[in-house]
Amino acid sequence: MRLYETIFVLSEKVEDPQVPEKIEKYKNIIESNNGDIITIDNWGKRTLAYEIKKNRRGTYILIKFQGDGETVKALERNYRLDEDVIR
């Protein structure tokens, strides 16, 4: 298994109480695809360098994990399907 880092940005419409639910969702996706979580860091809300999908701010989440290509594919597929993930 290889070491990976992923950073995703949640839309500004996602409220603070919902952020742990989103983190748990992606943690479960990684673990269900034979990945192992190393660290999860919530960087909090930050101003974006430029507007993305009509958002000026977003919540940044960093996840370091070990996995294989299938883990990464599953994670990327779910990022694309989730309307709350803007980047």
Describe it for me?
The chain has helices at residues 19-32, 69-81; strands spanning 2-11, 36-52, 55-67. The protein has 87 residues and is an alpha+beta fold. Strands 1-3-2 form a 3-stranded antiparallel sheet. Strand 2 and strand 3 form a beta hairpin. Helix 1 runs antiparallel to helix 2. The longest helix is centred in the first third of the chain and has 14 residues, at 19-32. It is elongated. The two termini are 25 Å apart.
Can you tag this structure with a few keywords?
alpha+beta, 87 residues, elongated
Quick one: overall form? Answer: elongated
Radius of gyration, in Å, reads 13 Å
Number of discrete helical segments: 2
**Runs with pLDDT <50, length 5+?**
none
- What is the string of SSEs from the N terminus onward? EHEEH
Strand content: over 45%
The helix-and-strand class reads alpha+beta
Largest beta sheet: strand ordering: 1-3-2
> How helical, in percent, are the residues?
25-40%
- Report the strand count: 3
Averaged pLDDT? 96
Q: What is the terminal-to-terminal distance?
A: 25 Å
Instruction: Report the major sheet.
Output: 3 strands, antiparallel
Quick rundown:
This protein has 87 residues and is an alpha+beta fold. The chain has two helices and three strands. It has helices at residues 19-32, 69-81, and strands at 2-11, 36-52, 55-67.
What topology emerges from the helices and strands here?
Layout: E1 2-11, H1 19-32, E2 36-52, E3 55-67, H2 69-81
